[in-house]
Amino acid sequence: MYTVEEDKINISEGSKINLDVKTLISIVVGIVSLAGIWFTLTAEISQLQLDVVRMHDAVELNEEFRIKWPRGEMGALPDDAKQDLRISYLQKEVDYLRTVVKDLEINQAKNIIDETK
After folding, report:
1. How many helices (H) and strands (E) does the chain have?
2. What is the reported pLDDT for 88?
3. Rounded average pLDDT per 10-residue block, the chain, 117 residues
4. CA 112 to CA 94: how far, in whole Å?
5. Residue 74 in contact with residue 68, Cβ under 8 Å?
6. Per-residue pLDDT at 15
7. Within a 10 A sphere around the Cβ of 87, how many other Cβ atoms?
């Protein structure tokens, strides 16, 4: 008959395990492979976390730029300054031409009234 006490394995500090070299090398290679995979994944996760932090900073800077640039709080380009000067000059010239046109219209209206008298 078969008893449970016969299947008990006594493991102690002095126990011996009988393994062939092929099995031992396979175990070592497996452990080294798992360690390599672990370190690779850990490095990739760290790199991705760093990339996320950098992207977050870039988004914050872009947000600040997007809000402040149109308001003129972050300065202006030299071309913008030139363009503003040109627009100002053209605005003054248009105002002058409008006064000239009004004067001409008034003079022409006076001439028409004088001719009808």
Report:
1. 2, 0
2. 92
3. 61 82 95 97 97 94 83 72 87 95 90 81
4. 27
5. yes
6. 80
7. 10
Q: Which amino acid is at 37?
A: I
CB 23 within 8 A of CB 31: no
Q: Kindly state the tokens that stand for 87.
A: 């627009």
- Residue 112's pLDDT is what? 85
Q: How many CA atoms lie within 13 A of 111 on its CB side?
A: 6
Determine the residue type at 20: D
What b/e sequence results for 88-115 when a residue is b if at least 16 CB atoms lie within 10 Å of its CB, and e otherwise?
eeeeeeeeeeeeeeeeeeeeeeeeeeee
Q: Quote the CA–CA distance of 75 and 68 in Å, as a whole number.
A: 9
pLDDT at 92: 95
Q: What angle do CA 72, 75, 78 make, to 5 degrees?
A: 115
